[in-house]
């Protein structure tokens, strides 16, 4: 009996993953408004009842897609920052990884989707921010907090994220996108230009070079 229940749950998870994969393709290629639960059901040749048993709404399905994309994005960033004490070297690695993740095609397509349709569908903009940028901000703020005060960590997080996302927007607007060497130069200049605050009392200060 337990084995049968396990198989049913496994099949359910596989079906859910199949739906999310199809929805991901549809949302990124066609946009939020043009994607429908019915069209995805027809593409997968499954009943609409099956679709609704997994996701109660298109918004819920979109959130599942965002969660999947953010999980892929976050794995790369967390790999650099998790359990790390601040150093300029670690920040440099994380910033380069962050830029590379931002420039992946799925990240660009999701960013454009939210920008183009977020005003019409504010729920998708909110879902994207809470599950994506807000999560990344928290990880970077925690990293800075290993050395700096809470206020300074918040300020440094704003500066770093604003600089990197602004540079991403600039890259997308250029006829020829900057190379990886150009990205490294930008990150090096960014880290070098910051007037780093004094460490908080009792913080573990590690070499910055």
Describe the structure.
The chain is mainly alpha-helical and 209 residues long. The chain folds into 2 domains: 1-56, Homeodomain-like (Arc Repressor Mutant, subunit A), CATH 1.10.10.60; 57-209, Tetracycline Repressor, domain 2, CATH 1.10.357. Helix content is 75%, strand content 0%. The radius of gyration is 20 Å and the shape is elongated. Pfam families: TetR_C_7, TetR_N. InterPro entries: Homeodomain-like_sf, HTH-type_Tx_Regulator, HTH_TetR, Tet_transcr_reg_TetR-rel_C_sf, TetR_C_Proteobacteria. Residues 36-55 bind DNA.
Fourth CATH level, the homologous superfamily of the largest domain: Tetracycline Repressor, domain 2
Kindly name the structural category: mainly alpha
* CATH architectural grouping of the largest domain: Orthogonal Bundle
The CATH class of the largest domain is Mainly Alpha
Gyration radius, rounded: 20 Å
| Biggest sheet details | none
Task: From the 3D structure, determine the CATH topology of the largest domain.
Answer: Tetracycline Repressor, domain 2
β-strand percent reads under 5%
GO molecular function: DNA binding
InterPro entries: Homeodomain-like_sf, HTH-type_Tx_Regulator, HTH_TetR, Tet_transcr_reg_TetR-rel_C_sf, TetR_C_Proteobacteria
Keywords: DNA-binding, Transcription, Transcription regulation
Protein name: TetR/AcrR family transcriptional regulator
């Amino acid at each position: 009996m337990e084995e049968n229940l396990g198989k049913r749950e496994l099949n359910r998870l596989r079906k859910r993953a199949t739906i999310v994969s199809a929805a991901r393709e549809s949302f990124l290629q066609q946009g939020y408004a043009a994607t429908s639960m019915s069209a995805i059901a027809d593409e997968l040749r499954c009943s609409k009842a099956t679709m609704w048993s997994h996701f109660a709404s298109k918004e819920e399905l979109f959130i599942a897609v965002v969660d999947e994309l953010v999980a892929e994005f976050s794995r790369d960033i967390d790999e650099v920052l998790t359990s790390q004490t601040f150093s300029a070297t670690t920040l440099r690695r994380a910033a380069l990884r962050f830029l590379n993740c931002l420039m992946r095609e799925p990240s660009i397509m999701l960013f454009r989707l939210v920008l183009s349709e977020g005003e019409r569908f504010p729920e998708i903009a909110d879902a994207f921010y809470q599950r994506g940028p807000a999560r990344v901000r928290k990880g970077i703020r925690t990293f800075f907090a290993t050395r700096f005060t809470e206020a300074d960590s918040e300020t440094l997080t704003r500066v770093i994220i604003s600089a990197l996302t602004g540079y991403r927007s600039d890259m997308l607007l250029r006829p020829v996108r900057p190379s990886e060497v150009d990205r490294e130069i930008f990150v090096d200049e960014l880290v070098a230009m910051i007037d780093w605050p004094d460490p908080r009392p009792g913080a573990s200060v590690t070499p910055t070079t």
